[in-house]
Specification:
The protein has 83 residues and is α+β, with helices and mostly antiparallel strands. It has helices at residues 53-61, 68-82, and strands spanning 3-9, 18-24, 35-40, 49-51, 65-66. The chain is 29% helix and 30% strand. The longest helix is centred in the last third of the chain and has 15 residues, at 68-82.
């Protein structure tokens, strides 16, 4: 089973809101995730994101691969925590 970290849209029409999820690569876009590790609001002024870095690092060390957008969100969250 190949595991991915990716975004899952849960917002309404013209108001996107996303969850950062750990999910099987073969699952449908709206499929049931293994774990929800964060959230991302793209409409907010600064693109508010919250990612549980502990769990993200655990899944990445376990062999999961992150999408490009999730990689950027993790990197952004890491820089916020260092400040």
């Amino acid at each position: 089973m190949t595991v991915r970290l990716r975004l899952q849209r849960i917002g309404r029409v013209k108001r996107p809101y996303y969850r950062v999820v750990v999910i099987d690569q073969r699952a449908k876009v709206s499929g049931k995730p293994i774990e929800i590790i964060g959230q991302y609001d793209s409409i907010a002024k600064d693109g508010i994101s919250k990612v549980n870095l502990e769990r993200a690092n655990y899944w990445l060390s376990a062999g999961a691969k992150a999408s490009e957008t999730v990689k950027a969100l993790i990197k952004k969250s890491q820089t916020k925590n260092k400040q």
